[in-house]
Specification:
Distance between the termini: 30 Å
Strand order of the largest sheet: 2-1-6
Radius of gyration: 32 Å
Order of helices and strands: HEEEEEEHEHEHH
Strand content: 15-25%
Length: 266
């Protein structure tokens, strides 16, 4: 059921059985002949028929679900009366609700890119920014044995790893004959650079946690945060979880238990 927090909705097909005691198939611990639940078959949201997932009536109510699941991918239609639909919100009558992760996407996108940029910076800028100067005596673009393309490949592929190293077939620029040969330099960025990646990544992680009112998990990680603040934040998180649980319980009661009771009245 908690899958609807990730996807915004999560439908399940209710499979019934007749309670006739212990049997090899669809057995029950009771033999009173009443109707019971055999199982709930949850349908992965991505298995619904693309573009035609829902069947609506003239008043906008959901009347059925179209599924096109693996391995045969044959479209099947299930009546909503035999299903139970869990969703995070009923706003605008949308059967697909709204995923909690959707509000986390922007800080997640920035966090992911900042981590990738941090890794690139550690790999490329760990020892400095590579720069090559081509002096007299080197082959430029359009000439035989183009040194310019070789120099471009060098600065692009310089990495801080076990194979790091460069070999030049020229004397170092400025060694006795100014302006001749090749000079390779590593230019270090000022201080820690323009961006503090740890602070930036931590900020976006905190914003992701705030969407679920779980920001208290970061208290103490940055040497800040009072115990009273942690207690109040935990209380808000508990209230939000209780709200989800109550909503799921109401859905189960209305579309699961009530239907089951009606079947046993006849």
């Amino acid at each position: 059921v908690l899958g609807c927090v990730q996807y915004g909705f999560y439908p399940a097909e209710i499979v019934y059985k007749k309670r006739e005691g212990e049997r090899e198939e669809a057995g029950s611990k009771y033999d009173d002949g009443r109707i019971g639940w055999r199982k709930w078959v949850f349908m992965a949201p991505e298995s619904l028929s693309p573009g035609g997932e829902w069947i609506f009536d003239d008043y906008g109510g959901v009347q059925g679900i179209n599924q096109q699941a693996a391995p045969l991918y044959i479209p099947k239609t299930l009546s909503i009366e035999k299903c139970i639909l869990f969703r995070t919100t009923t706003e605008k009558g949308n059967p697909e609700g709204r995923a909690l992760l959707r509000a986390m996407y922007i800080p997640y996108w920035f966090k992911k890119n900042m981590e990738e940029t941090e890794g690139i910076s550690a790999e490329r800028m760990g020892t400095g920014f590579p720069v090559i100067y081509l002096g007299d005596g080197t082959a430029r673009a359009g000439t035989t044995g183009d040194d310019l393309d070789v120099a471009k490949n060098m600065v692009v592929n310089v990495r801080v790893d076990e194979q790091m190293g460069i070999v030049f077939p020229y004397p170092k620029l400025g060694m006795g004959r100014e302006g001749e040969g090749v000079l390779f330099e590593l230019v270090s960025p000022p201080s820690k650079g323009a961006v503090d990646f740890h602070q930036t990544v931590s900020r976006h992680e905190q914003r992701m946690a705030m969407v679920g009112l779980a920001q208290f998990v970061h208290l103490g990680m940055n040497q800040v945060g009072a115990r009273s603040l942690g207690d109040s934040s935990t209380d808000f998180f508990t209230m939000s979880v209780s709200g989800w649980v109550n909503m799921f319980a109401e859905t189960i009661q209305r579309y699961g238990v009530d239907r089951l009771m009606k079947l046993n009245l006849f």
